[in-house]
């Protein structure tokens, strides 16, 4: 029988209207539930902010995550990768979606002057003491996750599948995700491998702006400790020594030529020396020096050029000082991650959902947001899995008036991450939670 082409119109119209109402209902539930939970979330945020902990020391923060997830009915697993926490909530047949929040803080002294500013000083493993603050917004990340976890537990009618909440340690040294996986996240601890991974990060732009862009968003990175060995002695007789401080100084300057003369000018790469540690007295030439190096890159070829270039420079300096082979510089490879590459289809799903929350003009997509040299280990929770589809988005947390003033002054941001003046506007706490819930529910909905 021949079908009239117009006979399907009423059915399609009804489907469209029902879908629109369903989306409106979901949005309203998110708005109402999180607004009602706002005061509690802000108190959680302030508590975590006032009690920051460095990587692999997040015992108190992990305890907060554990307690909150258990109270919501999640199956909770702790001590994964030292201090990692996982909550699992099963809700029928459907996809397995993982939501990650990092928990660690920075070795930075807070200068915001906020009434709930951190005054914490902690002792490192080497015995040294350092002030600590959340200067990268991980306190907000944890709070957003706990708010999302509550909404998902209280509104199971909105989704089907398995939800995995991850409180990850040690993102700052780029070690925590790999530590959790290597500790048997998916084997010993029995956490299901996810079909999708989703997460949020703060951005020092105005509250209301959200960055959700497809493709490569962040650079790969390596953290390297280099020890130069020399021969110590009296400062007045350098001819009787082999000065590792001079070796380190020479290396720092030569490293920069690797990028300027070794990397294709069309590519981006960075070598940063974040610390040089040597000696303690004015008149003593020490026997060794420690140089802490950070690399940023976008492809494995450039990464190897950087690493091999550093190694050759180190050995060349040692050879110039006539050091024996067994005293050549040592390179210790520490935390690392590959470039973060957002799945296109998954990210578009999140983009479309967030347009209804903050408006299309407030979503920074790939056409308005170039990739950055910053790095993350978020995706290392899944990069070794067969399925590795993930989306990582950023949420504006700067007071809008402060952001606008910065733009008028020709600045990119009003303050930077890892700086003592970094702060999260309290209005960003409920909004970030709504962004997390909206994106997460859209991922579940798309997979039905």
Please explain how this structure is put together.
It is built from nine helices and 18 strands. It has two domains: 30-219 and 339-446, Zn peptidases (Aminopeptidase, 3-Layer(aba) Sandwich), CATH 3.40.630.10; 220-337, Alpha-Beta Plaits (2-Layer Sandwich). The strands form five sheets. The chain has an eight-stranded mixed β-sheet with strand order 1-2-6-3-7-18-8-17, with helices on both faces. A four-stranded antiparallel β-sheet has the order 12-14-10-15, covered by helices on one side. The protein has a two-stranded antiparallel ribbon with strand order 4-5. It has 448 residues and is α+β, with helices and mostly antiparallel strands. It has helices at residues 9-50, 59-71, 138-154, 176-182, 244-262, 300-320, 344-358, 400-408, 428-446, and strands at residues 75-80, 84-91, 96-102, 121-123, 129-131, 161-168, 196-206, 210-211, 215-218, 220-229, 233-234, 270-277, 284-285, 288-297, 330-337, 340-342, 363-364, 390-398. Helix content is 36%, strand content 24%. It is elongated, with a radius of gyration of 25 Å. The protein starts with 8 loop residues before the first helix and ends with a helix. Residues 1-22 form the signal peptide.
Report the major sheet: 8 strands, mixed
Indicate the structural class. alpha+beta
Question: In order across it, which strands form the biggest sheet?
Answer: 1-2-6-3-7-18-8-17
CATH architecture of the largest domain: 3-Layer(aba) Sandwich
CATH superfamily of the largest domain: Zn peptidases
CATH class of the largest domain: Alpha Beta
Low-confidence stretches: 12-17
Number of helices: 9
**Range of helix content:** 25-40%
Mean pLDDT: 94
DSSP strand (E) fraction?
15-25%
User: What is the number of E strands?
Assistant: 18
